[in-house]
Amino acid sequence: MTDFSEDLRKTEAEPSRRRGRPAGDGGGSGGGDGVRSLSRALALLEDVAAHAEGVTLGDLAQRADLAPSTAHRLLKTLESRRYVTQDAERGLWFAGVQAFIVGTGFLRNRDMVGIARPFMYRAMEESGESVNLAILDGTETIYLSQVESRQMMRALAPPGGRAPLHASGVGKAMLAGLSPDAAGEKIKSLGFAKYTDKTVRNGVALLEDIARARSRAFAVDDEEHAVGLRCVASPVFNEYEEPVAAISISGPQARIPDERLPELGALIGRIAASITAAIGGKQPAGFGQG
């Protein structure tokens, strides 16, 4: 099998299309041919993984600002280690099995999904709606798992999907789990993109929303990310009283009217507290005591 680092270094012999990037800046933070090549290979892998439907070499090379020959050599190296795979007939690249194997290493650190799944099934059975588990990633949340509702019309949040902090139940629940100071700092970095007419568009309104969520132990997404979709969510805490995940119940507004929000909010709060206990975590003093 080809030596990965050696093959990566060979790509430096190929010129890249710079389009305004300063000479010598290959995207790596530490400098050096090996670091630059590794950075390029990882960028290609991330791009491939972001396109479940497959992506062409030309598109990958253009977005990475690389010559097609350089991008192809890096992809072939990744392919030799099973991080990517190619459908030669259609000319498309896909994430490979090794990318999945490496990714599951993160989940094995605490096996959050494995611990949460039984509680998620319980929440789905009691609510009749889809139940989601997400973690924080910068200014977004990433869904790790979903237990789908048995209803024909249901909310879908596939693993790997993202949601904005300011316009999702899981995002606002994670913010509510932070201390007021930490939440305020996080909110400063948000762009407040508008998704619907109900999307929260400024920090003051979001802080007020988070304060309510902290007081009652659950956050609400009232058609703020998608028209017709409602969601209630609560954070999961670790042993340091830090929010490490959020769990939510989501469904169409027609099945989650105003009068049902307190009931579902209390349910998701209990489920989140049960997961917190199962991982050896602890809720902060005063959370949900409003």
Account of the 3D structure:
With 290 residues, the protein is an alpha+beta fold. Helix content is 42%, strand content 18%. It is built from ten helices and nine strands. The chain has helices at residues 4-10, 33-49, 57-64, 68-80, 97-108, 112-127, 169-177, 180-187, 203-216, 261-278; strands at 55-56, 84-87, 92-95, 130-137, 140-147, 162-164, 219-222, 229-237, 243-252. The chain has a six-stranded antiparallel sheet with strand order 6-5-4-9-8-7. β2 (84-87) and β3 (92-95) form a beta hairpin. The longest helix is centred in the last third of the chain and has 18 residues, at 261-278. The protein is elongated and about 60 Å long. The termini are far apart. 39% of the residues are buried. Mean pLDDT is 86; it is low at 1-30.
Spatial separation of the terminal alpha carbons: 61 Å
Largest sheet: 6 strands, antiparallel
Strand order of the largest sheet: 6-5-4-9-8-7
**Low-confidence residue ranges:** 1-30
Give the strand tally: 9
Approximate helicity band: 40-55%
- The Cα radius of gyration reads 22 Å
On the 0 to 100 scale, the average pLDDT is: 86
Helix/strand/pairing class, anyone?
A: alpha+beta
Shape: elongated
* Share of residues in strands: 15-25%
User: Which H/E pattern describes the elements?
Assistant: HHEHHEEHHEEEHHHEEEH
Number of helices: 10
